[in-house]
Specification:
The structure holds three protein chains of three kinds. Chain A is an all-alpha fold. Chain A is about 80% helix and about 0% strand. Chain A has a domain of about 160 residues: MetI-like fold (Orthogonal Bundle), CATH 1.10.3720.10. Chain B is built from 20 helices and eleven strands. In chain B, strands 2-1-3-11-6 form a five-stranded mixed β-sheet, with helices on both faces. The chains are: A mainly alpha, B alpha/beta, C mainly alpha.
């Protein structure tokens, strides 16, 4: 029993240290967002009179909400499309070894080239198809980022004990598709969700594709934040405010997602 | 299922849809206050011509990266773009820019209103006009007036060097001042006040500022026949001075600074001087954004500083060239240019610097005019961007103590010569 | 009997193809052209001045790469960077994943903080750290000074700059690895652990003999993916150091970017990308074979 508590304490210890290392710079960023550039750089640090001017500025002057919307649409769109496609491919790889090593390597190979090279011909193609400066274009481009890596990642989740459950379902008369949809997917849901989250993040953070393939109406958050690097210097205080606003919604959504995660985990424990 | 597909198809179609617009031109600009000034005046343009203007502003750091794919397409997204002076030859060699002389002649737009030096480096390539200068960023020496006027400092300086302390008129004077003002004011063994702040980050940061150190020593990048002259004693001295400034007179970290970090040191009141873009003077001298506010002055870099500018250009991939030209005529007309200048824009037309209204609002205007008229520009040829990259790397190596200045000069000379040969400028 | 078996196998195969078709179609549509274009272009003299594939130069672009003065350094720096960041991130990620799997309270808060840096885009991360690590005006050196430690020239000293970039990248990305590993951990079966506890095995032995082996497939994939992403690291260099000081942080993707966008030589940049691709492909094949041997 004592060992159990010690282990728990150690775990909390690791997490507390880790979270401190992550959180402290973020708290600093919050502090910068609440002051202006001049005060932010002062040493020893002065606390000045915190105000929300920067937050107001990003919405009023920088029209942050539009960038936010674009980022959200593109990230959600590409994740929602990529996840099912990738899950199907990963399942085929795991169960039937479709295409063998060749196909799997081909799928991943598109990720192995620096985006800077890929983006130029991609731009040419998209231009011809009138996909520049559209949500669809950016979603497709982000698909190329998330689909290959998801397809590889999810294979591992389909290789576990879930096979036994599938067999049971097949014995009971389910078709392959039914087994896949009604047994496999729900059981592997937590892993799929985690992977989906990662795909969302990759799309959310992409800068290069957004720079080259989109125009003002479809600019995403990274572009908006990059614009704060002006010729008068980096407007670090406003940028910090923008960065905080960019993270906030996910913080709000997280508790809800966690609930689903817990449900999924307990489902998996059912034998 | 079918309904779902239909809905999905509709959604996809909507995502692809591009709404039809009234005559609109799109302009890609940098995030500078001047852009905002123009944005404010756009309704007047719309009223006068019926043309809608959409301005997209991105950070300068990303501009070249964004422009390259745009310009190689047969029809791009932008009607007017802003091009940095040292890209103009490269863009021209690739056939990306439209010549403007004929249009100017046709509509009677006088291109000689621009400061000749600016036009030479920014506007024209081999005598043909491709750009109209929009925003100058000539570099000047920003210094702390209050320190120069302090009698105690004056006495100490005179004692140490035997000359008066004043606004530096020669490069040697400035060298002494850099050394004099670097000091440890709180006795902890570490320098905490600096003679100058350098920005030695690899790439155009280091090239922009170190050029001044070369020019100050009388060095030039090339002679009138395009032979590179980077291995002359003056050039080596210039690189040595820059390395010294970075390692001895400038805060630690300067090896990786670009102008944002460097100016931050100045606005925190921790340095005597900085050679920087003239439009940053307003930021440094403003008490709201700088601890040195009200105490700063600006003067031309002794020996001649770096002259640089951005210009308006019409790419060959512009969807509506005529409307683009209409905009350019309007935005660079004296009336509009003057109003921009009154708001604090970076001027490019000669008459503006001495216009009485402007001088009244901005007393430093004549000095700025001098800066712009006496500056020197980088060599502008097809491979200038690569030149900035390669020579910048060498100077960065010297400034961070990783390479001897003479060796860096030699390597720069070779790299530059290689690129000139590639461009057919020398054999 | 035999006929029934092969028909089953055939239907299996058909199902597999059916499942992969949509994803594959999407990928081919988006990626095929750029990929093919790059490989094709690498055999031509193709500069942004002269965008025509009319000068076939065979392997000239490839051989000229060897002559590139600073390429060797870029490769070496990239190798060091990838090794350092993947190894460190794995260790930290694993520790965090294990810890998260173990605790029951405060999970929400931990998750929140864990996710935060991932959601910050690279431009902000880079600028924020540039400010914090400003040698003269940054809070980091100020705090170090308070502790009696000399200030560090984070971005000006070549050695320090390299490690700064590694550490900032880790700060930004380690949660990625942690989440991947956590997802894997949460899918592990309970029986082996119950058996181990009944046998009185210590936590460490449980970890080494049960967790690690069971996690091997997930670990392999996580490490492989992180490796590939690390190789593509670009934004941090673009904002923080531009490859400097000197060539201390000149990662290969930044090197290729300069070749394409500054040198305007797409033919050569394409050749470099293809070489990079082949290298990573080879590494992946090796890892893949290892993964298969585990399944």
């Amino acid at each position: 029993m004592r060992r159990g508590r010690l282990g728990g304490l150690a775990a909390h210890g690791v997490l507390v240290v880790f979270c401190a290392i992550i959180a402290l710079p973020l708290l600093w960023m919050l502090r910068v967002a609440l002051t202006d550039k001049l005060t932010a750089y002062k040493l020893p640090p002065e606390w000045g009179s915190p105000d929300l001017d920067n937050f107001v500025a990003i919405f009023v002057e920088a029209q942050f909400h539009w960038y936010f919307l674009n980022s959200a649409v593109v990230a959600i769109g590409s994740t929602v499309i990529a996840l099912p496609l990738a899950a199907m491919m990963a399942y085929a790889f795991a169960r039937y070894d479709t295409g063998g090593a060749t196909l799997r390597l081909f799928v991943l190979s598109s990720q192995m080239m620096p985006p800077v090279i890929v983006v130029l011909p991609m731009f040419a193609v998209f231009l011809g198809l009138h996909l520049i400066d559209t949500w669809a274009g950016l979603i497709l481009a982000h698909l190329s980022l998330s689909l290959p890596f998801l397809a590889w990642l999810l294979v591992a989740f389909f290789q576990g004990d879930v096979r036994i459950l599938e067999q049971a379902a097949r014995v009971d008369g389910a078709t392959r598709m039914q087994a896949f949809l009604r047994v496999t997917l729900p059981v592997t849901a937590p892993g799929l969700l985690a992977a989906g989250l990662l795909a969302f993040i990759i799309s959310w953070n992409d800068f290069l594709f957004a720079l080259i393939l989109s125009g003002k109406p479809t600019y995403t958050l990274p572009m908006a934040l990059s614009a704060f690097q002006t010729q008068r210097g980096v407007e670090i205080a406003v940028m910090a405010a923008g960065a905080i606003v960019a993270i906030l919604p996910v913080f709000v959504l997280l508790p809800f997602m966690r609930r689903y995660l817990i449900k999924g985990l307990s489902l998996g424990a059912l034998k | 299922m079918k309904r779902l597909l239909a809905f999905a198809a509709l959604a996809v179609a909507l995502a692809f849809a591009m709404p039809a617009k009234a005559q609109t031109i799109r302009i890609l600009m940098e995030t500078v206050p001047d852009t905002e000034m123009i944005r404010e005046m756009l309704p007047e343009f719309k009223e006068a011509t019926g043309i809608d203007v959409e301005i997209e502003a991105i950070s300068y750091i990303d501009m070249h990266t964004k422009l390259v794919p745009q310009l190689i397409a047969p029809t791009g997204t932008y009607d007017v773009i802003i091009v940095d002076f040292y890209w103009v030859a490269e863009f021209h060699a690739a056939g990306w820019l439209m010549p403007l002389d004929d249009l100017a002649k046709r509509d009677g737009f006088d291109l000689s209103v621009y400061v000749p030096k600016v036009m030479e480096t920014t506007g024209t390539v081999d005598g043909v006009t491709y750009m109209m200068p929009f925003y100058n960023y000539a570099m000047g020496l920003v210094y702390r007036k209050d320190l120069l006027e302090d009698p105690a400092e004056q006495a100490a300086f005179k004692e140490k060097y035997g000359i008066d302390l004043g606004v530096p008129k020669t490069w040697d004077e400035f060298r002494k001042q850099m050394e004099f003002f670097t000091r440890d004011t709180d006795g902890d063994g570490e320098r905490d006040f600096f003679g100058t702040v350098t920005q030695a980050q690899r790439g155009d940061c280091v090239m922009m500022q170190s050029s001044n150190f070369l020019y100050g020593n009388g060095a030039r990048y090339y002679d009138e026949n395009w032979n590179p002259t980077l291995d002359t004693p003056e050039a080596i001295q210039g690189i040595t001075d820059f390395a010294d400034a970075t390692m001895k007179y400038s805060p630690p970290g300067s090896e990786g600074f670009c102008f944002d970090e460097a100016v931050a040191v100045m606005t925190q009141g921790k340095a005597y001087s900085i050679i920087t873009f003239n439009n940053l003077f307003a930021t440094i001298n403003n008490p709201e954004t700088s601890a040195a506010g009200g105490k700063a002055g600006i003067t031309p870099v002794p020996g001649g500083g770096l002259m640089g500018a951005w210009g308006w250009a019409i790419p060959n991939s512009s969807p509506d060239k005529e409307a683009a030209w209409t905009f350019l005529k309007w935005v660079e007309s004296y009336d509009i240019a003057k109003r921009r200048a009154l708001k604090g824009s970076a001027m490019t037309q000669t008459a503006l610097f001495t216009d009485p209204d402007i001088v009244a609002a901005r007393p430093e205007a004549p000095v700025l005019g001098e800066l712009v008229a006496t500056g020197n520009a980088f060599p502008v040829f097809t491979y200038t961007v690569q030149f900035v990259e390669e020579v910048g790397r060498e100077i960065n190596l010297a400034a961070s103590g990783q390479k001897d200045p003479a060796e860096a000069a030699k390597a720069s000379q070779e790299a530059f010569a290689e690129l000139l040969r590639k461009d057919g400028k020398i054999d | 009997m035999a006929a029934a078996v092969t028909s089953l196998a055939r239907r299996d195969r058909r199902f597999g193809l059916l499942l992969t078709a949509p994803g594959l179609a999407a990928l081919i549509f988006v990626v095929m052209f750029p990929l093919g274009f790059t490989v094709f272009t690498s055999f031509f003299e193709y500069t942004l001045m002269h965008l025509v594939h009319d000068t076939f130069v065979g392997v000239h672009n490839y051989t000229s790469i060897v002559e590139e003065e600073y390429l060797g350094e870029a490769v070496w720096v990239t190798f060091k960077f990838v090794l350092a960041s993947v190894v460190i991130e794995f260790c930290i990620g694993m520790a965090v994943a294990l810890a998260l799997n173990r605790v029951t309270r405060f999970k929400n808060i931990y998750y929140l903080i864990l996710l935060a840096p991932l959601l910050m885009n690279p431009v902000v991360v880079a600028q924020l750290w540039r400010m914090i690590l400003h040698s003269e005006l940054g809070i980091m050196n100020y705090l170090l000074g308070g502790l009696g430690i000399d200030g560090v020239n984070f971005l000006g000293d070549p050695e320090a700059a390299f490690w700064t970039v590694v550490l900032v990248d880790i700060w930004h990305q380690v949660s990625f690895m942690a989440i991947l590993l956590l997802a894997g951990l949460s899918a592990l079966p309970r029986e082996p652990y119950e058996a181990a506890r009944m046998d009185g095995a210590s936590a460490i032995r449980t970890f080494i003999h049960i967790t690690l082996p069971l996690m091997r497939p997930v670990i392999a994939v996580a490490v492989l993916l992180r490796l590939i992403f690390a190789l593509k690291t670009f934004d941090i260099i673009y904002i923080m150091t531009k490859g400097g000081p000197g060539a201390a942080t000149d990662l290969i993707s930044y090197f290729i970017y300069r070749s394409a966008f500054f040198g305007l030589d797409l033919g050569r940049a394409s050749a470099m990308s293809v070489v990079l691709l082949l290298g990573v492909l080879g590494l992946t094949m090796y890892l893949y074979r290892y993964m298969r041997s585990l399944a």
